[in-house]
């Protein structure tokens, strides 16, 4: 069982708070990237910069053997922080509201420990990925040759998880997070005086019917066993209270737990947008903004995470094959190209953590030694076993 030194844990916690004060948006993590690179070089790793602009891959080799990747996300969110502690964000309108500062510090702690205690045989690639929040930095790194330049047999990532107590881990053999697509619908009718609706074609009434129809899509056109969410979140129409407008714009998000259901929903939503408004004399069109695919673990690697967590210091419980989240994660792109697994690390201490993407969120530093321990245990077990 790996024993992480207090010096490494202290450095990682200090770094986490330093990163929290200097949050940077995706693809602009210049200070963050420089700090990470400096530390990795001081640990004696081979450091490669520039993937997806601010991305970093640091390589630690210890003899012949397999190669695995460990990934952390490094970007922040466009949220004005409402906390008042000493390490509050110093960049107005930006904050680490999802814990990427903690993920980064944890992986750096693991890199230092493994560089100083090489109880494994093979190669570890430490992947520090920019732009997880919406910009798709994971896809960019893959497209720019992540797996060609740094061949690896497996890849892993963790995320802190409010709602799960500190010391508990969750991992599944399949979907962990949903796909995420945005849609933008335009309904075009004929404007007229609100007192004489028969002279026009009302896109607002057609839109109301379409919203209800799209919600029934899940209960009547898909199997009740399919986990899917369709949410209409924005509506814009009209400029005057006594005018039926020419157009209505609505937008929303689609989340699915399988890529097959995702494709079916694309087709059905387009079908509904075109057909439902027709009896109202209104034309419907939809534009898609395709986002992250399903974050789907490979069964063997999920089992590897489970066993590593069960043998890691401080882990009190491992949840296996729990229901997935309907949130999305761009580690999905890495899992589409390489066997691997993504898991959650419980974040709730004596008091429940604020939710992710909340202006009062702060990463729980008690997770840092737990996360480092899991990374180290996973590497030592997996590379040792593979080399035997």
What does this structure look like?
- This protein has an eight-stranded mixed β-sheet with strand order 1-2-4-3-5-16-6-15, sandwiched between helices. Strands 10-12-8-13 form a four-stranded antiparallel β-sheet, with helices on one face. The protein has a two-stranded antiparallel ribbon with strand order 7-14.
- A hairpin with a 3-residue loop joins strand 1 (46-51) and strand 2.
- It is of the alpha/beta class and 388 residues long.
- 34% of the residues lie in helices and 27% in strands.
- The protein contains ten helices and 16 strands.
- Helix 1 (6-21) runs antiparallel to helix 3, helix 3 crosses helix 10 (367-387) and helix 8 crosses helix 10 (367-387).
- The chain is elongated.
- Keywords: Hydrolase.
- It comes from Rahnella laticis.
- Residues 183-276 form the Peptidase M20 dimerisation domain.
- It holds the Pfam family M20_dimer.
